[in-house]
Amino acid sequence: MAIFLVQHGRCLSGKEDPEKGLSPLGEEEIARLAPVAKGYGIPVTQIFHSGKKRAQQTAARYQSALGLDAAPAVMAGIAPLDDVRAFADTLDPACGWMVVGHLPFMERLVAYLTTGNEELRVYRFQNAGIVCLDGETDAQGNLDWFIKWTLNPNIT
After folding, report:
1. Each residue's pLDDT tens digit in the chain (156 positions)?
2. How many CB atoms sit inside 10 A of residue 50's CB?
3. Which end of the chain is more exposed for a tag (fewer CB within 10 A), N or C?
4. Residue 155 falls within a domain, yes or no?
């Protein structure tokens, strides 16, 4: 199993929607990716989101497409500027969680888990895209995280 990190879908501007809900393009990109994720049978056990409208909407679209019974839940500690180190300590590669959040948190988390340095950019997220991270225990008993695969709305 693994963890699945998602940057929320594209959203409306604050002028169009003060809560910055999903834009039509954001809806379309999720509608295109979610069935692909379902077709691959990704083993998501629970979906969490930051509580912001665009993240909640993205999480709900994936929950529906993946056919999960449990509604997405709000998770503390994944706001854009939250401490990735504290959150990383709570992760287990066997959990099967999908976590829907925001930049720069998501990119910093991937960098920290894979390199130990949250300041390095090792992956550039795309809105609504999924980054699958998995982990193995090394000879010293340390958890070694790696990017297993990604699924994105654009290949350019």
Report:
1. 799 999 999 999 999 999 999 999 999 999 999 999 999 999 999 999 999 999 999 999 999 999 999 999 999 999 999 999 999 999 988 899 999 999 999 999 999 999 999 999 999 999 999 999 999 988 898 889 999 999 999 887
2. 24
3. C
4. no
Residue 75's CATH number: 3.40.50.1240
Asked if 126 contacts 75 with a C-beta cutoff of 8 angstroms, the reply is no
Q: Which two tokens stand for residue 27?
A: 């809806």
149 falls within a domain: no
Structural domain count of the chain: 1
Determine contact, residues 31/59, Cβ cutoff 8 Å.
no
Residue 154 forms part of a structural domain: no
Q: Give dist(CA 154, CA 127) in Å, integer.
A: 10
Tokens of 62: 């994936």
pTM: 0.94
